[in-house]
Amino acid sequence: MSQAPHPPELAADRALALAFDVGGTSVRGAVVGAGDVSLAESRVATRTGPAVLDDIAQLGEELLAHLSVAARTRVTGVGVAFPGLVDTESGTSLKAVNLGLVDTPVAAPLAERLRLPVSVSHDTAAAAGAIWVDAGSPSSAFVAVLGTGVAGMTYVEGKPIVGASGQAGELGHLVVDPAGSACSCGLRGCVESRAGARRMLERYAAWGGDPRITGVAELVARTDHDPVAAQVWSEAITALADGFLAVGALLAPGQIILGGGVAEARGRLLEPLRDRMRERAGVTAVPPVRLSSLGARAGLVGAARLALASTGTGA
After folding, report:
1. Weakly modelled stretches of the chain, pLDDT under 70
2. Which residue range forms the structural domain that includes residue 86?
3. Are residues 58 and 144 in the same domain?
4. SS3 string of 265-310?
5. pTM above 0.90, yes or no
6. What domain count does the chain have?
7. What is the pLDDT of residue 7?
């Protein structure tokens, strides 16, 4: 259990939320209060199948137990940012390929275990919404969430565009190199097959990289002296550049805002990405690209806001 060091005192009458961001490599949990401040955070490695629901519930029980009795009574709901296809009304995972789940209730078993109302959202929608608000709610923007998966949300006149299927923004499965490596979706050369966090690490290991490297931050830190890391990172940036240029050609957003764990590379991502987009743009206008301050916390913040809004206790 990791706790935010010396968390600030929050008003005693403000509601708290239990938030979870379920990713391809880890499940992050936090108790979140006003101003998106975390009183406590923890994470566990992601397991596949129904075991992931047990892990979420256990993580939630541990986080609640960490609170004082007074603080525990202020937790009004649970928000879960979940990958794949999600039925938000019923709180069901319709299909989560990376987790091996199909038509699996998520909200009901967690509500029974945690004894709190549970709201479930698609992880991209939760994270992108938080990033968009953090960026000042621009009228026109494409918000990209870069992590194990690569996805985004388009905002037009301040409203999110989800599409008829609810899957608008699946940037990670846009093919940018038909002859490229296989993607988990079954296609070849998708953006995610090169720029997804897990796939970057797999490529690095397969090309003879240092076996001790287990995170993208470590890989990026080695790019100045490790040619394998530099090649993997360069190809990831090229895939992202081509994906964002396609977004620009089709949607012409006013700006592109980057969040998620991979975006914590910050300058090592932003400057090369801007340069690569300009190099490969052709006649496509290159929109401004900037970073969100939320980084990897975007999913947790979005899930917490979802929980508070669903229970009518948000700020």
Report:
1. 1-13, 314-315
2. 16-123+297-310
3. no
4. HCHHHHHHHHHHHHHHCCCCCCCCEEECCCHHHHHHHHHHHHHHHH
5. no
6. 2
7. 44
